[in-house]
Amino acid sequence: MSHRFEIRVAGSGGQGVILAAVILGEAAALYTEGLNSVQSQAYGPEARGGASKSEVVYDRAEIDYPKAAHPNLQVILTQKAADQYSHDSAKGATVIFDDFFVTDPPKLDADVYLLPIVKT
């Protein structure tokens, strides 16, 4: 039985977006028996400051598609990422925006939180 759970972390290069997803993916695979995880990433050619996103998919069943189609959890660190990615969240998802860099969070059918992520 599939219990797929999708996470997306999005922002700009240099914010630790990819590292965060790698840690989430490895932790689940190592410390939760019977849970599979895959991590994927996409980023622009810039070393710092370009668009960046990373996704983790968890499932007890075999994972046949490694990308997040409708994330259950999103952590979004920039306004550009908010505009580009937040609208494909799953119904009832949790979306966490950085409260400094996301100045106009989109209206969503999700539990939305604004937190000082980059400041801390």
What proportion strand?
A: 25-35%
- The shape, in one word, is globular
Number of domains: 1
The CATH architecture would be 3-Layer(aba) Sandwich
CATH superfamily: Pyruvate-ferredoxin oxidoreductase, PFOR, domain III
Helix content: 10-25%
Query: How many separate helices?
Result: 2
Low-confidence stretches: none
Order of helices and strands: EHEEEHEE
What's the level 1 CATH class? Alpha Beta
Q: How many whole angstroms does the radius of gyration measure?
A: 14 Å
Main sheet characteristics? 6 strands, mixed
- Strand tally, please? 6
Write the layout of secondary structure elements.
Elements: E1 5-12, H1 17-31, E2 36-43, E3 51-59, E4 73-76, H2 79-85, E5 93-98, E6 110-115
Parallel strand pairs: 1-4, 4-5, 5-6
Antiparallel strand pairs: 1-3, 2-3
Question: What keyword list fits this structure?
Answer:
alpha/beta, 120 residues, 6-stranded mixed sheet, Pyruvate-ferredoxin Oxidoreductase, domain 3
Describe the structure concisely for a colleague.
The protein has 120 residues and is α/β, with parallel strands linked by helices.
